[in-house]
Amino acid sequence: MSSYSFLSKDELAELQKELQAKYAKFKSMNLKLDMSRGKPGSDQLDLCMGMLDVLDSNSILKSQNGLDCRNYGMLDGLPETKELFAELLGLRPEQIIVGGNSSLSLMYDMVARSMTHPTVEGMKPWGKYEKIKFLCPAPGYDRHFAVTEFFGVELVTVPMTPAGPDMDVVEELVSSDETIKGIWCVPKYSNPQGYTYSDETVRRFAALRPAAKDFRIFWDNAYCVHDLYEEGDKLLNIMEECEKLGSEDMVYIFASTSKISFSGAGVAVIGASEHNIARIKKQMTIQTIGYDKINMLRHALYFKNADGVRAHMKKHAAILAPKFQLVDDMFTSHLEGKGIAKWTKPKGGYFIAVDVLPGCAKRVVALCKEAGVIMTSAGATFPYGKDPEDRNIRIAPTYPPMEELKQAAELFCLCVELVSVEKLLAEKTSNEKVKMFA
Amino acid sequence: MSSYSFLSKDELAELQKELQAKYAKFKSMNLKLDMSRGKPGSDQLDLCMGMLDVLDSNSILKSQNGLDCRNYGMLDGLPETKELFAELLGLRPEQIIVGGNSSLSLMYDMVARSMTHPTVEGMKPWGKYEKIKFLCPAPGYDRHFAVTEFFGVELVTVPMTPAGPDMDVVEELVSSDETIKGIWCVPKYSNPQGYTYSDETVRRFAALRPAAKDFRIFWDNAYCVHDLYEEGDKLLNIMEECEKLGSEDMVYIFASTSKISFSGAGVAVIGASEHNIARIKKQMTIQTIGYDKINMLRHALYFKNADGVRAHMKKHAAILAPKFQLVDDMFTSHLEGKGIAKWTKPKGGYFIAVDVLPGCAKRVVALCKEAGVIMTSAGATFPYGKDPEDRNIRIAPTYPPMEELKQAAELFCLCVELVSVEKLLAEKTSNEKVKMFA
Fold first, then answer.
1. Is the domain defined by B4-44+311-430 classed in CATH 3.10.410.10?
2. Distance between CA atoms of B335 and B333, rounded to whole angstroms?
């Protein structure tokens, strides 16, 4: 297929009619599909049902340290669950706190505590500064941005590249501006592009020399074991890199089993330097006596070790890889070569990012919605929900069953075509020049 | 036994020798007992093991609203779990948010959010005031006081009476001082005395007219169904009283199953007016996508309804009532009539409070520790851990098995006697007058 940029006004008008007819047909189907969030499908959740059998009324609910998991205590979690995550994340068990079912909560709590209490002994809490800022590599994860926005932190967009955030920009900003207190990162299979930070990017993170002594990297390793194929991306271990340089207090690592076991009932962890762990525990002990240890035990017994988790993730991959493939196939057959869209081909994670022609993303998402398919809001992947070029759309292919996913992807492609044609027609009238994709 | 106040110096010295000999014998036993915290015993936790059988790999994990409990979503919790708690607490399901495993966390989060975000639309967050204060009925719960202390809130002691906090003091302070933003309450079987607020106290709470429009009552109904005997204390429903007066936004209610199901793996709730629930959810949605719904489902299926919970609590009572009785019997036989101690006789909850002679509590707890029995730190029941008269000691009789409890209580009585005799001997020398109990 040749690029739409070669079409004449009449050809575009003709094409528009065709596409409108197809769209009308889609609307008449009264679809009700949801591709908005990175949720596992119910077949993925079925994979873990065996976890509900590892404990029953005959079980001894003791941790390997002899303590009763049913009772109060063990603020930082069960030793065996710490070990499991330590192995998965390449940390020492002493660098782990096991939390509740949500890593988002752990990140929120970390920001919340930092607002009211010092991050570094003797410094002011972030909330006592006139103004503070967070770097937000974008496109990025809307819930990250929302946490800092909620606390009145100014969000500063940093461009994303296939190797991670633009580190020239990050280094320049972080080393010169002491009001910059942190950066949000999804270092492996980034949300939404599925990019994995390069070794150089990770090393440059570890080597940051921030103007603010209480600057922190929020390293949300949400997709640490979420490979789609045998050969997944490899992420360098940031803690090891930091330890080489003595900057290990600068990074907070987060992960969870939300997309390994159950999204609604997994376990989440913080990984941090021993010094940070001690400081966090001192504050956390005011908030809780301990998180759900029976669920931690369930996870430790079910997965046994990191290999157990990796074997389990292969089952997820068997379900997810065909979905990612389907979307890519649809995009290729409907959009490739037309100069109207560009998309990523991640080897893991939960999302595909699509760029459409500037000024078209919102309208594409609106048309999808009108025809019964809910997409992530256009703009959601940028700070304050505002995509400056209105072009990035996050595709979440995991939740719908294949048949529905196919319909949704087809409709999406149709909407991209339709809105692009509208745009190009408007261009012919206004003589504005639309920048097409190569 | 007649009061020690009638003993001569020589008689006291003689008695001291006897008691010291007994104490030496205790020390030689190398006891290692813990009466410090309100933890259920393992036999109590055994009562709920059946909850681990209600879900297994063959279960359909759908909520009654059709949603999959395994997946993300349902920020405010499962409808069936909301209903269960609504029935227990005399609220409407719309007035409930079901959280994670810890009501302390829910209280902490509520205070934390109030520090950084307005409690009442248009007002400043608490953290933006030069100084704010919280009323702390004391003796009270150390973890409550610690939460507000952590956020730099000034703790103001309010005297407790058998009918609840001294409401003359509460009304006077709350109506005149707009820096007072809240009060901590354990309205039923208070920690540590086991007092239940009278109907009049509850009504006076509902009728408060605070100087601060963002004043809130933190109503920690931790022991709402924790009766020891058939005839338990009755607590008036504060939400109903507030609704009569239009003051329903003034109260936040908290409860949990930590001492019903599993202390480490229960579910906790917030009860509040519909208006407050909407406001809390708006903030909470930044913090989490939802709490552990599989555990909520487990609780709803296992207990079925409020009657199910009440029937279960009878089994707890069968274990706990003899422990409370034992302690009371020991206190009666060793301390009654001597004028050296006074203690409460609660009909529920987790604690007994003992007052000893002024200036003696710390030394009693220290002597117990020296002989191998850990008590709650003297002073812990007061703001900043400082009992102005050094006389209140919290007894937590639930955790140790009967035989250990008997030893611990015996040692405790001995230490009270010994320290009292020391005190009275010192009095004879210094001519200070010790105020004995009637």
1. no
2. 6
Q: Which residues of B touch A53 (CB under 8 A)?
A: 56-57
> What is the residue-level pLDDT of chain B in tens, covering all 438 positions?
579 989 999 999 999 999 999 999 999 999 999 888 899 999 999 999 999 999 999 999 999 999 999 999 999 999 999 999 999 999 999 999 999 999 999 999 999 999 999 999 999 999 999 999 999 999 999 999 999 999 999 999 999 999 999 999 999 999 999 999 999 999 999 999 999 999 999 999 999 999 999 999 999 999 999 999 999 999 999 999 999 999 999 999 999 999 999 998 999 999 999 999 999 999 999 999 999 999 999 999 999 999 999 999 999 999 999 999 999 999 999 999 999 999 999 999 999 999 999 999 999 999 999 999 999 999 999 999 999 999 999 999 999 999 999 999 999 999 999 999 999 999 887 777 888 887
Domain B53-304 = CATH 3.40.30.10: no
Q: What ipTM score was computed for the predicted complex, to two decimals?
A: 0.96
Q: Which listed CATH number (3.90.150.10, 3.40.228.10, 3.40.50.970, 3.90.1150.10) goes with A4-44+313-430?
A: 3.90.1150.10
CB pairs under 8 A between A and B: 164
Of A55, A72, A105, the CB nearest to B264: A72
Nearest to A105 among B71, B262, B288 (CB): B288
Say which of A45, A70, A127 has its CB closest to residue B264. A70
Decide if B101 touches A, using CB distance below 8 A.
yes
Alpha carbon of A30: minimum distance to chain B alpha carbons (Å): 21
Return d(Cα A154, Cα A179) in angstroms, integer.
10
Q: What angle do CA B169, B175, B180 make, to 5 degrees?
A: 85
Q: Looking at chain A from residue 363 to 422, which residues have their Cβ under 8 Å from any Cβ of chain B?
A: none
When the candidates are 3.30.1490.20, 1.10.1040.50, 3.40.50.2300, 3.40.640.10, the CATH number that belongs to A60-310 is 3.40.640.10
Contact: B146, A286; criterion CB under 8 Å: yes
What is the distance between the terminal CA atoms of chain A, rounded to a whole angstrom? 13
Domain boundaries, chain A: 4-44+313-430, 60-310
Q: Cβ(B123)–Cβ(B225) under 8 Å?
A: no
Pick from B270, B93, B77: nearest CA to A101: B77
Contact (CB, 8 A) for B371 and B32: no
Residue with tokens 């009766």: B227
- A38 to chain B: nearest residue by CA? B72
Whether B33 and B400 have beta carbons less than 8 Å apart is answered as: yes
